[in-house]
């Protein structure tokens, strides 16, 4: 241990008077080169014993100006006196980056290392936020990311024995609770962005409420956006609420006179107008999805470059959840410099999904464009379909969007809808995810946590009884729960996979069908966003041609396998990907996911194996394993030419993106999407007799609605009995 390390402070003894707030009064007289009075401050970093770098002081100066710094003493005192605390404040006030560091100040270095446990964790609903904010905080603390400060997200982490502060996704903390139900590794848990009410955060709230009763030494800090803080306060029996002052400057809000017919086109037009007519300052545009954002970035860049030197240069930066942290850094970069010495000022334009509403705060944004839409998950338990729709946002969301400006200077928010529509059409708030999701995986997790009575579990907003029943039913059909609702051996195994239980079941079955290597690849490919680059109109022909090279006529799952194999055969080469219109990042991510899943399979003693490629059962085995996971997502081709989903009898159509060269009688599908019609997407040809072979408990005809498929299945069953009798 370095002798120069600062004096020890035991947990929750607030550093009297000498917290950094008072030590680092900005001194315009400049007692030091950094403009701080650092005379009382150790020049040595107590976490790693190294002298502080210049960057540390530069960042510290900025940190002390964040609104949250004014409440540091109040916060530390309240943390000492209470088990649960609620912090509320607007985006950008410094909650995510500073609060965990304040908590760390109360922790003694030596005991932190001696007990070899993470002391402080901070959850994030988005993996990208967890990764990027941990890097930022490591810089602010002047330590190396992955050492004292780390992150852990699904299928990826960067931590060490020395880690004292970990940012992790809420889903990861929930998984930790499975192995360590009282979360002994943690002293202080910070639930950040609780207002977003992600599924995992909602479950964690209930779980932590139970843990806090049993562990009086554990502290919980819930961070929320101002408007929703009261609800958390009530949920935690009136825990104290600390409000961080937010926006300091006025924000002007503009509405359109008439409704816009095409929000995308309107958004791009507004960007260009602002760039032409408004004073310098970054623009933040909210759109709905990755592809739309990439297209918009492309169009904006093109339009601006067509305008020549009439306008300044622009830097257009996308922001969505599947970016890498490195790509994300661009949002914090300054705008481009003018092209010539007296040229027009450059501008940064960030085009983002609703992830920028709260998870990322970009200081130099002055203009926000809010077209009023977002992609939202909707689950209909009656037909077991979870889909993503582009739908109007809520008033709460619109408020968050306009709150993305006005922190460092005056701002303007352009709402691309009418004021009347804002008042009359937008619903007040976005429903929590738990009310809009398929909760099968959540139920599995809760069962694994030993919470059997789900009806009485203390959910902040309980899921609809129907959704709960559906989840129990699905898990029972998968064999994860027995008829009494208890976790089976298979259920225990499925809960080890951080994935939808259908995929888990498919992986478990794949060992028996001698194709687990292939199913691993397919599962990984299903876990990443679209691996094909979506073409603009001009490129469509070449993209289709490239796609045809990977096509497997029996279905999209097998096509995904072909893409993955081709990527590996071509040495994971980035330029090969772009030549073939394959998304390199998606493939790289899939490869990583595959590796992690393979590790889980090995740990669970599930055999990794393949059928010989020349064996004619090679693809049949894979298709059977797919069906073993997805036997509840099967559709039958009716004589009228459309498909009908099994048991639910929904009329569906094959999505035009499919690669089949025929219309199979039976298909399994991965998801339903509703656009002009209800489409089934990612489909593969399966056989009727496999249904009765692999899932006779589900295809039990006594409980089957009348349809053509029922008659066919009846015949298959009959034939099966006949063959059995013959062979006797
Ligand atoms: O959580 P909250 O929205 O209150 O604020 P924060 O995420 O802690 O951000 C505080 C400040 O750090 C803002 O001014 C951000 O722009 C800045 N920041 C940054 O420059 N780079 C990052 N990677 C993260 C935050
Ligand atoms: Mg935050």
UniProtKB/TrEMBL annotation:
Molecular-function annotations in GO: ATP binding; hydrolase activity; RNA binding; RNA helicase activity
Protein EC: 3.6.4.13
Keyword Hydrolase: yes
Catalysed reaction, written as an equation: ATP + H2O = ADP + phosphate + H(+)
Top-level EC class: hydrolase
Domain Helicase ATP-binding as annotated: residue spans: 76-245
Keyword ATP-binding: yes
Domain spans labelled Helicase C-terminal: 270-450
One Pfam family cited in the UniProt record for this chain: HA2_C
Keywords carried by this UniProt record: ATP-binding, Helicase, Hydrolase, mRNA processing, mRNA splicing, Nucleotide-binding, Spliceosome
Lineage: superkingdom: Eukaryota
GO process annotations (BP): mRNA processing; RNA splicing
GO cellular component, one term: spliceosomal complex
Cross-referenced PANTHER family: ATP-DEPENDENT RNA HELICASE, ATP-DEPENDENT RNA HELICASE DHX15 HOMOLOG
Name of the protein this chain belongs to: RNA helicase
Species of provenance: Lactuca saligna (Willowleaf lettuce)
């Amino acid at each position: 241990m370095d002798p120069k390390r600062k004096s020890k402070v035991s947990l929750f003894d607030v550093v009297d008077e000498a917290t950094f707030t008072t030590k680092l009064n900005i001194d315009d007289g400049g007692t030091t080169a950094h403009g701080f009075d650092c005379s009382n401050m150790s020049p040595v970093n107590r976490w790693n014993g190294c002298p502080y770098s210049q960057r540390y002081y530069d960042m510290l100066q900025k940190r002390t100006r964040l609104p949250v710094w004014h409440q540091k003493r109040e916060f530390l005192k309240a943390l000492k006196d209470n088990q649960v605390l609620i912090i509320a404040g607007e985006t950008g006030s410094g909650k995510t980056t500073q609060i965990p560091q304040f908590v760390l100040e109360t922790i003694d270095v030596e005991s932190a290392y001696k007990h070899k446990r993470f002391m402080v964790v901070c959850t994030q609903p988005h993996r990208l936020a967890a990764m990027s904010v941990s890097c930022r905080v490591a810089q602010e603390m002047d330590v190396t990311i992955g050492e004292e400060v780390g992150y852990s997200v699904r299928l990826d982490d960067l931590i060490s024995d020395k880690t004292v502060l970990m940012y992790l996704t809420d889903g990861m903390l929930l998984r930790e609770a499975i192995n360590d139900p009282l979360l002994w590794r943690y002293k202080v848990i910070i639930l950040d962005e609780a207002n977003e009410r992600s599924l995992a955060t909602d479950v964690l709230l209930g779980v932590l409420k139970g843990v806090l009763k049993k562990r009086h030494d554990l502290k919980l800090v819930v961070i929320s956006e101002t408007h929703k803080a009261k609800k958390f306060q009530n949920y935690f029996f009136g825990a104290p609420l600390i409000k961080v002052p937010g926006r300091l400057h006025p924000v002007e809000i503009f509405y359109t006179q008439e409704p816009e017919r095409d929000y995308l086109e309107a958004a791009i037009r507004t960007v260009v107008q602002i760039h032409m007519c408004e004073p310098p300052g970054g623009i933040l545009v909210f759109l709905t999805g990755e592809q739309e954002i990439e297209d918009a970035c492309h169009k904006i860049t093109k339009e601006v470059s067509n305008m020549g030197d009439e306008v300044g240069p622009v830097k257009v930066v996308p922001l969505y959840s599947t970016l890498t942290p490195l790509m994300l850094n661009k949002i914090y970069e300054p705008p481009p410099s003018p092209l010539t010495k007296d040229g027009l000022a450059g501008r940064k334009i960030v085009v983002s999904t609703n992830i920028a509403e709260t998870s990322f705060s970009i200081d130099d944004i002055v203009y926000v464009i809010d077209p009023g839409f977002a992609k939202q998950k909707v689950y209909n338990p009656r037909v077991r379909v979870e889909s993503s729709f582009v739908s109007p946002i809520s008033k709460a969301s619109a408020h968050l969007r306009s709150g993305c400006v006005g922190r460092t200077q005056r701002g303007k928010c352009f709402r691309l809808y009418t004021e009347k529509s804002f008042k009359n059409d937008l619903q007040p708030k976005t429903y929590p995810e738990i009310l809009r999701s398929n909760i099968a995986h959540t139920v599995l997790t809760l069962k694994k946590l030993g919470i059997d009575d789900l009806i009485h579990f203390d959910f902040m907003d309980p899921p609809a009884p129907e959704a709960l029943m559906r989840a129990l039913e699905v898990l029972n059909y998968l064999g994860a729960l027995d008829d009494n609702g208890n976790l089976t051996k298979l259920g225990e195994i499925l809960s080890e996979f951080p994935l939808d239980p259908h995929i888990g079941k498919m992986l478990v079955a794949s060992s028996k069908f001698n194709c687990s290597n292939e199913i691993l690849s397919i599962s990984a490919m299903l876990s990443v966003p679209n691996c094909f680059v979506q073409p603009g109109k001009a490129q469509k022909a070449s993209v289709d041609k490239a796609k045809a090279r990977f096509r497997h006529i029996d279905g999209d799952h097998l096509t995904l396998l072909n893409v993955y194999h081709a990527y590996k055969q071509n040495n994971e080469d980035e330029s090969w990907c772009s030549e073939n219109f394959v998304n390199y990042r998606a493939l790289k991510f899939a490869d990583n996911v595959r590796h992690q899943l393979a590790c889980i399979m090995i740990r669970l003693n599930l055999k990794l194996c393949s059928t010989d490629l020349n064996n004619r059962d090679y693809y049949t085995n894979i298709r059977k394993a797919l069906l073993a996971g997805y036997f509840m997502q099967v559709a039958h081709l009716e004589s009228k030419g459309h498909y009908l989903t099994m048991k639910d009898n929904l009329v569906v159509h094959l999505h035009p993106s499919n690669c089949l060269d025929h219309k199979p009688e039976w298909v399994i599908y991965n998801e339903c999407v509703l656009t002009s019609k209800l489409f089934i997407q990612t489909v593969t040809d399966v056989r009727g007799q496999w249904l009765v072979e692999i899932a006779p408990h589900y295809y039990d005809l006594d409980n089957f609605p009348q349809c053509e498929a029922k008659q066919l299945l009846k015949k298959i069953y009959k034939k099966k009995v006949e063959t059995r009798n013959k062979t006797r």
